[in-house]
Amino acid sequence: MNSTIFKHYVYFFNIKITALVLLIGLGFSSCSEDLDDNLTPTIQITFKFTHHWDNEPVTNSSLNILQFTNANGELLSIERLRYIISGIRFTNSANESFLLDSYNLVDLTSNKGLSYTVQTEIPEDTYSVSFTFGLNNEDNSENYVDLNSESFNVPDMMGGGYHYMQFDGKFINTNSEEQGFNYHAIRAVDNAGTDPTSPQDTFFTVNLGTITVLNRTEIEVKMNIAEWFTNPNLWDLNEFNQMLMPNSAAQIMIYENGQSVFSLGEVTQ
């Protein structure tokens, strides 16, 4: 092969290599753009839990004072209030649902869990937002080290699992004496002992309504504590004050009254 032909060969070979490299580069660039287009940004959503007695705010400083009167006319105090919310779900107008498989222990007593921030990969959109009060049956069968350390367990003879809520205080009974109450919500159980059965589920879904979710959205969840004693069951603390955990009828009443306890507060972005 003479030198002129060889030079032409090398020249055309270099052109082909250059073109191939450019095509590969364009291919990677195109793929990169497609991947970026399909990525869902991580957004930050904070749930802020506030507590009220009807229209009166209730905070940690409100505890251990006989100052609240329930619908049955009983003067009472709040000494401890803590509860679990779980299974936060976002459902858009196309009925696409995004479930956050996590839980939060809200503890008014120690001012813990009153603000719960989640990082989630969902599109900014308008959603119907809901959560579970307590733990559903599948989640309630799990073992949670943090809840164990908080003594939030339910004894096996009462069905096992965990409390949905511990609400304790004192009230003035019909003898004008100060008496304690333990308004504890758990899974309703019959036949307490080695083979308990559950007459019905007592965790429940709270629907907050439609919320436009953007990055750094804060959603206020309001609990009206007075409603636990009000509707549809007018609660008589003289009759139902303690030993409510093994009382499935009382647990179902708590479940029924809980339907009107939570509401949506302010949404800020």
UniProtKB/TrEMBL annotation:
This is Copper-binding protein MbnP-like domain-containing protein. InterPro entries: MbnP-like_dom. Residues 44-234 form the Copper-binding protein MbnP-like domain. It holds the Pfam family MbnP. PROSITE patterns: PROKAR_LIPOPROTEIN. It comes from the Bacteria. It comes from Winogradskyella thalassocola.
